[in-house]
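User: Okay, second chain of the day. Same drill as before: sequence in, structure tokens out.
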Amino acid sequence: MAMFPGNPDSVAVAILAKAPLPGLAKTRLAPVLGADGAANLQARFIAHTVTTAQSAALGPVTLWVAPDPHHPAFQAIAAPPGVALAVQPEGDLGARMMAAVEAARGPAIVVGTDCPALTPEHLRAAARALPRRHRRVRPALPDPGPGGLGGGAIRP
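Assistant: Same drill. Structure tokens below.
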């Protein structure tokens, strides 16, 4: 699947990410890593996920950020061509994921940054698994967290 506008096989990749701020990111790891260490880990997870999505070359990559799109880590990641920034809307995780799928205006995969084992081939396999007809949102992983989700046209 080549990455270019108008490609009928293009699948957008939306990445949901919290800013790597001490006290905001990876708070459950802060007791072990410290608040700064947890924030640094989040920055590395974001960079890894963006690089993985770009390497998969499925279609447009959008980094959906919260709470501050002006955070230096987000600006550095969006500086190279091929990564768009969008601000996550208010609401629960489901609402934020749905906004990312709707914004794609076509087939999309939504992932979080909490999966350091994610590879470009995982994303390609997820894209191949999306049905070509009657696309609908469905979890890509059994975990209820933001590990991944794929879909196309939204159907209630």
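The CA atoms of residues 62 and 84 lie 5 Å apart.

User: Thanks, on to the next one.
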